[in-house]
TrEMBL record:
Superkingdom per UniProt: Bacteria
Protein's name according to its UniProt entry: DJ-1/PfpI family protein
Entries under PANTHER family matching the protein: DJ-1 PROTEIN, DJ-1_THIJ_PFPI FAMILY PROTEIN
PROSITE patterns per record: PEPTIDASE_C56_PFPI
One Pfam family of this chain: DJ-1_PfpI
Organism name: Streptomyces poriferorum
Domain DJ-1/PfpI: 4-178
Signal peptide residues on this chain, from the entry's feature table: none
Length: 188
């Protein structure tokens, strides 16, 4: 049986930050499940960078079904966790079931990949204190408030925690995450 990896997300997640790791990890032989506040068809978004805008723009993205609700997740069933960004982390970080899931992975030192605004969720779970991370650069004050040392670089590996800034950093993010996974939770 293939090791299972959990992706936690919701509506308004960045399409690429959910679907790139979903496909890449399946390609490696992992079984990947997507959990959200409820079982439903999720509506993702596309964040892009356009000349003349002070920040990213947002457009409608893909839809994708959630395999299970946060309340149905048994963290012990999974060897690793992926925490995508987008706008979803703004409201998901308030979900008690999600914070319980996040804490379970950090408390047992299992691999976690987070990107963009995803670290807002791990910060809300109290998991970033004394960690080195990167995130979307506008989150630097949030990461420091959470007790993390922020680095504005394409990928930061701190033990089993692998973080990146945004979807343009996907290649480095998944390369480093797979390095951690092959050591901690290899596909056999």
């Amino acid at each position: 049986m293939a090791p299972k990896i959990l992706i936690v997300t919701g509506d308004a997640a960045e399409s690429l930050e959910v679907l790139y790791p979903y496909q890449r990890l399946r390609e490696e032989g992992y079984e990947v499940h997507i959990a959200a506040p409820s079982r439903k068809t999720l509506r993702f978004v596309v964040h892009d960078f356009e000349p003349g805008f002070d920040t990213y723009t947002e457009k409608p993205g893909y839809t994708w079904p959630a395999d299970l609700a946060f309340s149905e997740v048994d963290p012990d069933d999974y060897v690793a966790l992926v925490v995508p960004g987008g706008r979803a982390p703004e409201y998901l970080r308030n979900d008690a079931d999600l914070r319980t899931i996040l804490s379970a992975f950090f408390d047992t030192d299992r691999p976690v990949a987070q990107i963009c605004h995803g670290p807002l969720m791990t910060a809300a779970a109290g998991a970033l204190k004394n960690r080195r991370v990167t995130a979307y650069p506008a989150l630097e004050p949030d990461m420091e408030t959470a007790g993390a040392a922020f680095e504005d670089t394409e990928v930061v590996v701190d033990g089993t925690l692998v973080s990146s800034r945004a979807w343009p950093d996907h290649s480095a993010w998944m390369r480093e995450f797979l390095t951690v996974l092959r050591t901690k939770a290899p596909v056999t």
